[in-house]
């Protein structure tokens, strides 16, 4: 069964941050969120670079036909772009980003993940957190040192143990999962500017009650802002539908928001080697 995505995306700087370091993007075949690593100079450049490497590579081709190895290689290319830009500009040294994306297949949805941005799936009214946070507090939870409720407010909750940061090993740390595709599923890709302030029960209710993906995205952003989120707030809400909903001309247009929409952060030349 061929499937496609109907998607709404939002990325908001918020009142407590000077700039938006998150990038979000989508087409009818894939969607993603990338959160520039907090506290690192160039977090916005990092998420822009990964977003545009991905989208430039996928624009001429059907993402549904990409293998696991091809997706990992694409993230490796993006990671190499980060290393190149850091080498060219000392001010960007140490920049990095999370990445969480979904890619439609004929029978599955492929989840690609590194960092602490999250992918959730709502199916038949039940919300499942599909990804595992690559974070210090997640390790503490698994060691029995914290519970989920305490972890959400822990002072070290934003320390991540894996990211794309231009290091040789980073692509090996990317998790790739194949999940069964089902028309009617609603997926959420989200940065920690939302999940640090809303519970999974909050998220489930908003996704289930929303009339469509646009309404769901608006509800999530408004709720994070009402909860006084101190970070950038980024959400991508995707409904899985049967069939191919590519452009009428056969093209595969994509949309972006957040740092990825800022032309001053990079050029195609930053991605070419």
UniProtKB/TrEMBL annotation:
Pfam families per record: PP2C_2
All copies of domain PPM-type phosphatase, residue ranges: 6-240
Membrane-crossing segments per the record: none
Annotated InterPro entries: PPM-type-like_dom_sf, PPM-type_phosphatase-like_dom
Name of the protein described by the UniProt record: Serine/threonine protein phosphatase
Species this chain originates from: Cellulomonas carbonis T26
């Amino acid at each position: 069964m061929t499937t496609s995505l109907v998607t709404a995306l939002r990325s908001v700087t918020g009142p407590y941050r000077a700039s938006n370091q998150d990038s979000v993007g989508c087409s009818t075949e894939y969607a993603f969120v990338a959160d520039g690593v907090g506290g690192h100079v160039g977090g916005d450049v990092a998420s822009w670079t990964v977003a545009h490497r991905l989208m430039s590579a996928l624009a001429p081709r059907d993402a549904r036909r990409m293998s696991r190895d091809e997706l990992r290689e694409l993230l490796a290319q993006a990671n190499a772009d980060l290393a190149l830009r850091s080498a060219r500009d000392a001010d960007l040294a140490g920049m990095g980003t999370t990445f969480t994306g979904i890619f439609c297949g004929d029978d599955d949805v492929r989840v690609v993940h590194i960092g602490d941005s999250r992918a959730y799936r709502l199916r038949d009214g039940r919300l499942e957190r599909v990804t595992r946070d690559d974070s210090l507090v997640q390790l503490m939870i698994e060691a029995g040192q914290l519970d989920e409720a305490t972890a959400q407010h822990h002072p070290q909750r934003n320390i991540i143990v894996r990211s794309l940061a231009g290091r040789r090993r980073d692509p090996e740390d990317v998790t790739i999962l194949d999940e069964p595709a089902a028309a009617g599923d609603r997926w959420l890709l989200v940065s920690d500017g939302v999940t640090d302030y809303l519970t999974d029960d909050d998220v489930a209710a908003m996704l289930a009650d929303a009339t469509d993906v646009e309404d769901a995205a608006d509800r999530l952003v408004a709720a994070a802002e009402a909860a006084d989120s101190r970070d950038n707030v980024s959400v991508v809400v995707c409904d899985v539908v049967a069939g191919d909903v590519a452009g009428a001309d056969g093209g595969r247009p994509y949309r972006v928001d957040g740092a990825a929409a800022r032309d001053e952060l990079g050029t195609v030349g930053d991605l070419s080697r």
